[in-house]
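Researcher: Structure prediction, please.
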Amino acid sequence: MNKEKPKMKYPFVVFLAGMLLAQLANAKDIIHDSEFQLLQEQHGDKWAAEDKDIEKKLDALRKKHGKRPNIIHIMWDDMKYGAIGHKMLNNVTGYRSPNINKIAANGMTFSRMYSEPSCTPTRVAAATGRQPVRSGMIVPIFPIHRMGLPGSEVTIAEVLGDDYNTGFFEKSHFGDQEESYLHNQGYDEAIFTLYNQFAGQMFTPEAEAAGMTIGWQKDEWDRFALDQKFRPTEWLWAVEGFEGQEGKEVATPVNVSEYHDFNKMAYARVKDFIRKHADDDKPFLLDWWPNVLEMFSEDISPKQTPNGTASSEGLYKLDKQIGEIVALTEELGIADNTLIVLMADNGPMAEIWPETFHNPGIFRGGKNDFLEGGVRVPAFAYWPGVIEKGAVVHDIVHVSDLFTTFARLGGKMGAVPTDRVIDGIDQVALLLEGESHGRRDHVFIYQGPVLSAVVKQQYKRHFAGAAPGLVGKGFFDLDKDPREEHPLMAEFLWAWPAFDDMKARHEAQIKEYPHTPVARGEPYKGIERLKK
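Model: Predicted structure follows.
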């Protein structure tokens, strides 16, 4: 059936975008989003000269250590911006994070690190360097969703390939499809959960008794229930896998104790991985995305933090583990050749207040929001002798930038796919040279499949809920109004078409490089199940 093509709303802008896309295709280079290409046109010569100096620094480090840097990426759940990184923030919020504070004091703090609004999308962006909407990974995946990351997506582990030892531990949240499993996505070894940590805690009698889950235990079922398969009772949670082999189920908790046992085992494997590869000829990539927060803490009393919520108590436990990881790199003599990046995956979850400590703060909003409180997250980088101590950078960084930055550090930019849009931007210059050396000044913020807002420099426009015409255009100056409470219109008449043009270029590029459908099918193929 032939459909009439709709008339283009912005023909000149789309024409320009089409010309830009044609140039990119001919260049046979990484296809970045259209906004970054505009920046390259303006700053390309300067960046090229800067990159020559950066390559000299990286080459000197490689000669000093005999290999490229190790990379450790630690990412946890649902963290409020402005609670950690400094003792003053701890005092105000009731958190305790002495080891993260030490990393901030001796490394770099990002004041404008953007994530996606929820777990799965952020993790996909980090792993693939692409907006999750491009692969259909737009919602958090729960048991049994029968969906996952498409096998055609290329992860940072696949980019680094045989030049790195690659390991993944704990929460992937990439889904229950065989092609989505971490050992099928480039990781040499992985212990990973198909879904999030809530399933591991909430599908338990303890959660039902506490009123956190309703209708899971059989004695709570509707007495008229006919469909005995309505609940995902045959679900599977955690898998161990090695590249080229079938996966094995290692945990599907039936109680909270089993949930904690899995997390302790996975953390022990994190440390084993570091020890095993510290002296290898090849460097390592370690993605440790722990199952924080814990709704049922192992610690009964006393509380370890003044705040006393699941969020603050879980963060304190994680902080101790982060301190142990840093100490281990020092003990093994690899600290000065190891980049450690710490961050949360999105803002706090208001639905389970107060346990996520979702109170009014610097930003408005939380998890699943396009407001800054949903997508501005605490983030830090540590690399002794390389990153300036105590650096605080206000350059915009998006979680997808880690993909391209790690590829550059690993010397594998040539392995980054050139047949699709890569949203991640190489931010090595920011790490090595400090503030004002970032290469991003924009972020497209999606909620599911919907482009809800766009950040450009210090300004933000809300597209979600915007009324037609002049009223309700929702322009914000984030420096003056970080909580996005005072929408402006008349003062930003110049920005109206500028943001419209950004959106049009973005949409034109999507037409040129269409989204990949999410993987769907029968779950749990290629996994050896535990015998019950």
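Model: The longest strand covers residues 70-76.
Researcher: Thanks, that helps.
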